[in-house]
Amino acid sequence: MAMAMTMAMYKPIKGQEEEDNGNRNKSLKSNDEDGVGGDHTIVDDSKTFILPTHSKQQHHQQRMKQQQQQQRLVSLDVFRGLTVALMILVDDAGGVLPAINHSPWNGLTLADVVMPFFLFMVGVSLGLTYKKLPSKAVATRKAILRALKLLVIGLFLQGGFLHGLNDLTFGVDMVQIRWMGILQRIAIGYLIGAMCEIWLKGDNHVASGLSMLRKYQLQWGAVVVLVSLYLSLLYGLYVPDWEYEIPVAASSSSPKIFRVKCGVRGTTGSACNAVGMIDRTVLGIQHLYRKPIYARTKACSINSPDYGPLPPDAPSWCQAPFDPEGLLSSVMAIVTCLVGLHYGHIIVHFKEHKDRILHWMVPSTCFVVLGLVLDLSGMHVNKALYTFSYMCVTAGAAGIVFTGIYMLVDVCGFRRPTLVLEWMGMHALMIFILATSNVLPVVMQGFYWKQPGNNILRLIGIGR
After folding, report:
1. Using CA of residue 149, residue 155, residue 157, residue 162, what is the dihedral sign?
2. Three-state DSSP class for residue 208
3. 38: closest CA among 436, 433, 413, 424?
4. Is residue 435 classed as helix, strand or coil in its secondary structure?
5. What digits encode the pLDDT tens for the residues 357-415?
6. What's the rounded Cα separation, in Å, for the pair 41 and 75?
7. What mean pLDDT comes out for the span 96-125?
8. 332 occurs within a structural domain
9. Residues spanned by the domain of 379
10. Segment Disordered: which positions (predicted)?
11. What is the distance between the alpha carbons of residues 39 and 20, in angstroms, rounded to a whole number?
């Protein structure tokens, strides 16, 4: 997968406490840092007692030590680690196994679930992080700072600063910098999700699923607004003809200019969709991703579904830049984050395992069924456009997988088989940077003997 995937860890706002629902021994807390790890702990107050010989100070120290050693909410770490493992798998093996690589356009593959899985778990973590707030202003400031951190890291990793293997140059040409990317999209989803959780929730007590919907009705209203905005722009905007240019090998020659004929409205084809038009207009075509996924379609590659030479009758748009993490598609990505936020609310307000599983599985199943029905009705599942049907299917799948991991790890206690995934989930941002952004290979390639070609990577057969 050419894109990398990424992540968000969240630090709880100081002073947050768990709601008391009459079962304190199962209450959950969150202690996440920026990036993709988290610390979700289970507190057992029934085991806390004071010996008569203990002083107040000793008891306070004992409680502090006990809180520092609290057990993590393992299922979220395992789910995050599984997503990171899938990301690495499709990045490294996607070229060899096209069946798991990103779908060239319409359709769904294993690689296509990675991004929504990350966004989903960002939402779940937000539900645990912002349970109760001593100050909405302070929480807002911290959320903005964390989003900016992810945004800056994303610009560094995917904006063009590192030019890749076999190229020891670095730096960014601001005329061609890529503004959007994986971490940038997650930063946007995290920020909007955090603002909704901080400012758009009621104060009423939650005793049932209906009362929980009433408490967060403004957040669901935001979902309706975002979905309506996306659908109205995708199917309502007129897409005129457009053109792009490709530099030729000889620097003295003028670039080749290609003209794409559109003049349509409401299409979701590769060349004339509103998602690409908005990105070309707002961001500029020179700032978009230059290896478009539709270059692997049969119309654009003789090796489809892999990249390859152009067929003799290839359409003019095959080599045009297209950003899979564009502006309009990110609107629907935010909805995935807000769906995950709802699943985090279920953890906060329902303490019994059977209640959580029920409130997770019902909407997850409904999302998958709705997405498949929409796909059969003509609203195709499409990752590049992040269509509404794609959001439904992938968010529902994320909910089902998360529920299964929760049952396996937190309910049944099968933690040992998932220790590797748990560790990967706790260090997801570090793994993302090292494994998917060429940071480690570029650093290794930077140490050579006499000539740049004599480096460690060349010695072990990488980068030839």
Report:
1. negative
2. coil
3. 424
4. helix
5. 999 999 999 999 999 999 999 999 999 999 999 999 999 999 999 999 999 999 998 88
6. 11
7. 91
8. yes
9. 24-234+326-459
10. 8-38
11. 20
- pLDDT for 163 equals 66
Nearest partner of 83 among 401, 414, 438, judged by Cα: 401
Strands, DSSP E only, in 46-182?
A: 71-72
Tally of domains within the chain: 1
∠ CA 435-428-103, rounded to 5°: 65
Q: Look at the block and give the residue holding tokens 């599983």.
A: 357
User: CA distances (Å), 397 to each of 276, 366, 414, in order?
Assistant: 27, 10, 22
Closest among 444, 398, 373 to 123, alpha carbons compared: 398
Tell me the two tokens of residue 344.
Answer: 């985090």
DSSP labels, 308-351: -PPPTT--TTTT----TT-HHHHHHHHHHHHHHHHHHHHHHH--
Residue 435 lies in a domain: yes
- What is the percentage of the chain residues whose pLDDT exceeds 90? 54
For residue 82, the model assigns a pLDDT of 93
Contact of 180 with 228, CB cutoff 8 Å? no
Q: What is the pLDDT of residues 39-59, one digit of tens each?
A: 443 333 333 333 344 455 555
If we measure between CA atoms, which residue out of 188, 56, 166 comes closest to residue 122? 188
As a whole number, the mean pLDDT across the chain is 82
CB 395 within 8 A of CB 339: yes
d(CA 263, CA 328): 20
Q: Is the pLDDT of residue 16 over 90?
A: no
CB within 8 Å of 293: residues ≥ 6 apart: 102, 103, 104, 105, 322, 324, 383, 384
pLDDT tens digits for range 242-289: 999 887 765 566 788 999 999 999 999 999 999 999 999 999 999 999
Phi/psi at 432 (5° precision): -60, -50
Task: Give me the DSSP letters along 373-407.
Answer: HHHHTT---BTTTT-HHHHHHHHHHHHHHHHHHHI
Residues in the chain: 464
Question: Phi-psi bin for 309: left (phi > 0), alpha (psi -120 to 50), beta?
Answer: beta
Alpha helices by DSSP H, listed for 11-158, are: 56-68, 74-93, 114-129, 136-158
Which residue has 């003028």 as its token pair? 254
Question: Which DSSP helix (H) or strand (E) runs through 29?
Answer: strand 28-30
Q: Per the domain annotation, does 77 fall within a domain? A: yes
Separation of alpha carbons 266 and 173, rounded Å: 35
Question: Is 84 within a domain?
Answer: yes
Contact 371, 392 (CB under 8 A): yes
Residue 456 clears pLDDT 90, i.e. is over it: no
Q: Across the strands, what pairs with 457?
A: none
CA–CA distance, 59 with 53 (Å, rounded to integer): 10
Q: Which two tokens stand for residue 138?
A: 């302070």
Burial of 140 (0-12, 13-18, 19+ CB in 10 A): middle
